[in-house]
Design goal:
By secondary structure, this protein is of the alpha/beta class. The chain is built from 8 helices and 10 strands. β9 and β10 form a beta hairpin. The chain binds adenosine-5'-diphosphate.
Length: 254
């Protein structure tokens, strides 16, 4: 069974009498365990598609099955419910609460969940999520005491803490330098190897190479959908570290 199945999805934005056809008939399937990327020029419909897949918006026409359930006609409350149960979000700008520790930021989605977890369970799950992204030792830091890459890792932990079936990431490395971007891609690849399904929007071809499938949008339509051999972020990171070591040595010796 596909985790995400879109059939002939359209989305038209109406402003006054003018309509903008942001999506014009999208057929798209995401299987359990996929790591797919969506590329396309600005205005091609990437955010609109992610909003629909993420149950933040509804299509104008077409059907959307999420984990086998047709959610196309769900009202706002039902969409919010399925969203909280199924999807984790990571954004370009990390959207962490300031003056709130990393641990508290990660605990937040569980405070609003219907799971009736005890404080201890909430605490332990948040701690575990921070450990998964390698930030077990930074739990008491506020966002302004963390680097951009560390803030994004907190945001990933916050997305993971509800144990979603899919991680939706919208330009997750857009505010990060190349080296930090590799670290984030390394985390994504490790999560994916452990079974998490990932769908990521990026406009950077270098970042799209870390997924195993590249879907390209143009003017609200899918114009290409290719399987690719992903570049391993761990290897790219190791090469980078080696290069830095060589540069450091030549600086010291000069
Ligand atoms: P991308 O994420 O690829 O940049 P978008 O999905 O944001 O593309 O936009 C697709 C098209 O829909 C664009 O022409 C954009 O101007 C239009 N659009 C997006 N959001 C709205 C909105 N809320 N109201 C009207 N038009 C919109």
């Amino acid at each position: 069974m596909s985790l995400v199945e879109l059939n002939q999805i359209t989305r038209t934005y109406r402003t006054g009498t003018v309509g903008v056809e942001a999506l014009r008939g999208i057929d798209f399937k995401l299987q359990n365990g996929d790591f797919s990327t969506i590329m396309g020029a600005s205005g091609s419909g990437k955010s609109t598609l992610m909003n629909i897949i993420g149950c933040l918006d509804k299509p104008t026409s077409g059907s959307y099955k999420l984990a086998g359930e047709d959610v196309s006609m769900f009202n706002k409350n039902k969409l919010a419910n399925v969203r909280n149960r199924t999807i984790g979000f990571v954004f370009q700008s990390f959207h962490l609460l300031p003056r709130t520790t990393a641990l508290e930021n990660v605990e937040l989605p569980l405070l609003y969940s219907d799971d009736n977890l005890s404080w201890k369970e909430i605490h332990n799950r948040a701690k575990h999520a921070l450990e998964i992204v390698g930030l077990g030792d930074r739990e008491k830091h506020n966002p302004n005491e963390l680097s951009g890459g560390q803030q994004q890792r907190v945001a990933i932990a916050r997305a993971l803490v509800t144990e979603p079936k899919i991680l939706l990431a919208d330009e997750p490395t857009g505010n990060l330098d190349s080296r930090t971007s590799l670290e984030i891609m390394d985390i994504f690849q490790r999560l994916n190897k452990n079974g998490l399904t990932i769908l990521m929007v990026t406009h950077e071809p270098d970042i799209a190479r870390f997924g195993e499938r590249i879907v390209t949008l143009r003017d609200g339509l899918i114009v290409s959908d290719k399987r690719v051999e992903p570049v391993q972020a761990a290897t790219a990171l190791a090469n980078w570290k080696e290069m830095e070591g060589v540069e450091l040595e030549s600086e010291i010796s000069s």
